[in-house]
Amino acid sequence: MPTLCVVGLQWGDEGKGKVVDLLAEEADIVVRFQGGSNAGHTVVIDGQKFILHILPSGILRPNCLSILGNGVVIDPIQWAAEVDDLQQKGVTVHGRLLVSNRAQVVMPYHKKLDAALEEARGDASLGTTLRGIGPCYVDKVGRLGVRVADLVHPTAFRGVLERTLPAVNRVLHRGFGLPEMTAAEILQEVGSCGDRLRPFVADVAQVLHRALAEEKRVLFEGAQGSLLDVDFGTYPFVTSSNTSVACAASGSGVPPSRIQDVIGVVKAYSTRVGQGPLITELRNETGEKLRQRGGEFGATTGRPRRCGWFDGVVTRYSAMINGVTRLALTKLDVLDHLDTIPVCVGYRLRGTLLQELPADIDSLEHCEPVYRDLPGWLRETSSITEFSELPAPARSYVQAVSDLVGAPIEIISVGRDRRHTIRVP
Ligand code: GDP
Ligand code: IMO
Ligand code: MG
Could you say which ligand is closest to the alpha carbon of residue 296? Predict the structure, then answer.
């Protein structure tokens, strides 16, 4: 690995946290490059569970420097709470984390606007995490954002607030009937977090270029999944960032030519939190069983995740846009109890067979899955550590997923813990 990027190929929660933690053993630096604390990445080490929302999962590996790139949106209050939580659990953060001076700050009013927008959408709400992500990215491209470099310099911060608040308050008050916010209120809410952030702030692009010149190994940690990508996902039921590999470059300052090795993480079935199409969704007892066996409840909001069969159409598309070179397949153990496991090999749309993912939401909502049934293995797999010891039908399932997505599977996860992992020879 000089560089390696890990991305989710479904709707998030594929198990990226676990996979990044495994790969970080061999990395010097782990970089988050997009999203914010809408992410929830779970890592379980010898039974101890950590859920990372904003910090890179590499923070749990003492050998790694962790970096938040310019593409991340940082809620300073959540950031400080997560740092405290980790320190309490015995994880050293000071001296092992850098935050880009160019990253955008999630302001208190972004969270209010997220909730107000969801309410205004009524029945068409998206089911966001209410972490202020959408409004923060809107202000970034609308040139009304506050950056980390501003937040950590009190005079600059006051100046930015004076410049941006008149427009922000128009939206808050005239747009949504919310109380206007004063600079003093905002300074009181997040000013002290600016003081805490200051020692972590760096020109991350410079740091990464120096590290690459020294042949350090850099691991990029994607958040969310490709079907939540603002361009390539099931728009408008997406998040507000590019979740695919292209953003590893624009969100960190490392040129695209340096990021060629991409591991796509796929769960052995599909899940989705929030609204939007999930073509293989199981709204029945089987779906409920997957939810219970897989512990499919949001790591960030606790919401039950919608569950369905593996979808070869969306994952092949995601692998294509990410240039995926290899795959990690997670949660195979969740399927242990099934005697037959359908996988989706195509869609039927108004009588026509499709192999490719339609762009428009109306078509997506009318697509029906075409399944191929694969035999189950009806055996517990969590204690297996060698590929050759997996039951033959489980090996066939792994091969079928690999064929559908179009990339080799290198890692198979059969449980939550670090040790529940099979490396495919
Ligand atoms: P992420 O957002 O992609 O990092 O994934 P999440 O952490 O939100 O969700 C994945 C969930 O599945 C977490 O609770 C993990 O502990 C758990 N998990 C990861 N891999 C496996 C696995 O192979 N088997 C089982 N049973 N659970 C897993
Ligand atoms: P990780 O990194 C699953 C979903 C939300 C909602 C939509 C938009 O743990 O895989 P947002 O708050 O981003 O504006 O919400 O995106 N969503 C996720 N779903 N895993 C995530 O992150 C998610 N981050 C956002 O549920 O449907
Ligand atoms: Mg998650």
Answer: 1
